[in-house]
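Q: What does the assembly look like in three dimensions?
Context provided by user:
Components: two
Sequences:
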Amino acid sequence: MLHPVVFVGAFTLLGLLFALQEWVSLHSWNSHITITFRLLIAAWCVHYFLLGTICWVLWRLFGHHVQKATLFHMATRILPLSLAVSVFEEMIWVAIFPGRPIGLPHMSYWQRLAFHLDSDIVDSLVIFWAVFFLLRGIGYYQLYRETVLAAVQLETQFANAQLRALRMQLNPHFLFNTMNSISSLMQTDIAAADKMLEQLSSLLRITLERGDVQLIPLSDEMEFIEMYLAMQDRRFTGRVRQEVSVEPDLYDALVPAMILQPVIENAYTHGLSKLEKDGLIAIDVRRNNETLAISVINSGLGLHPQNSNGAGRHGVGLTNVKDRLHLHYGNSQAFTIEELANGKVRVVLSLPLQFSERPTRQLTGYGV
Amino acid sequence: MIHTVIADDEVLARQKLRQLLRNEPEIDVVGEGATASETIDLVRATKPQLLFLDIQMPGMDGFDIATELCSSNLTPKPHIIFTTAHDQYALRAFEIHAMDYLLKPFTQERLSSAVDRARKEILLSSQQPAGNGAPGQSGSHYTTRIVFKSRGRIVFLPVSDIRWISAEENYVRICTQNETHLLRETMARLEEKLDPDMFLRVHRSSIVNLQHVKEVRTEADGEYAVVLVNGEKLTMSRGYRSRINGWLTHS
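A: Here is the predicted structure of the complete assembly.
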């Protein structure tokens, strides 16, 4: 907001300019009147300093009315106020400078006041109203700024809510599939069911611990993926070879949490599960200049043209991945899915390379 | 036999632990406690060597029980393995010298590794009659075990289980017999925590556990390699060769 020193200072500066004007005018047209330049400056500066101070005090006391005043209020309250302020200020000023007006015979206080009011009242009124409308303008500008800010915040909140909703859809999908596997294993292999339940608990623990955090270090995402791959390996018992390669300097790069799991789940459901043996899933994370490229290649039956019925082709999982990438990175990301030779399918996620400002503190302790 | 007490307020949790412990040799469950006071009385009466302790129980929590048992003049003090669904107490458990920290649900395999470690420790403390049974009384200032989270589990890893450690930028990869763990840590900091009589830096980016080294070999290209007992091979830089030579002539 306006600082009082700036506010009153501007008024005083205005007074200085008027003083200069009068001095020039006296020199050019009324050279018979002698007055020191210093007294002239003092008179004008004090005049406007007083006006400025009164306006400032009024504004501090009744500032909230500036914004709300209707035309009716302006006519019935602010107009009388402006007159009162002008007269009041003039009264103080006349009392301070008994030597004015210059070059006229001696007058009483009231005579001098009348003389000065006659010459200054319009100036004072103009200045008062100029300040009034300036403050009103500043108020409107602030209101406008606040509205814009609120709109931006609302937009961010909405995007975050959307992201949360999308993340929530990922977990149950995978959760129920796994519970189904456990349920099935319970009939045949109790130890394996137990193991899977432990792995699922670990996965859930990690997911819950992350809470609402949207961007996490790649190392955390890959830890999750390794656990997920271990679970899939148990289900596919040796039918699928898994290869994971990550450039070590990318472990601290930020990626959206749980962005890879649906891609890998998709590779298993639509590709690897159709193969009887020698399946391969290869995850590769590398840096391309300022881009982080995550590629997932899986063997399978390629992209079936007969399955392609628009958006639902890869299920809700991949659509979610696309939407989340878009919400996070706008147009600076890319999601591609393509068929390679021998029925292999490659999905590539390209996102801007970002690193967390402070590395996450993980629990580590040393001792005896 | 190792006398063991199970403390957990949930009957199904006690039942599962009892069943899994039946498969563990030398473990003899001598009692079960469902509350804090019951557990303390039971431990005083039966003087077990091993105590499976839940953290959240009615009355006092697992740490209160541990403190109560430690402050009493009970001998031998039981080795404690915490079993809990919460991972946030792991560091505290580590600091009070708990043997291990099992996150529920756990598997037979995970339980076995905890029990094996306890068995070794109990054997060791029974061979040292002067010791009061509490672990961690050795004078060395080097770390003998590390606690960290890996793949949603809490790991209390004795450094003797580490085979080798490799640097991956801001991270280190710790390799044990069956697993590897990625930790956000620097080689320099880790090296300084580890006993130099046991671990040797053989490369800018690798540290090896000397107990697992089989030989040092000169490769066809003139480079040196450290070969581990299990056949794994680590390259060694020239600058570090003199160090391992020193160790080889020593032993």
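Follow-up: The longest helix of chain B spans residues 108-127.
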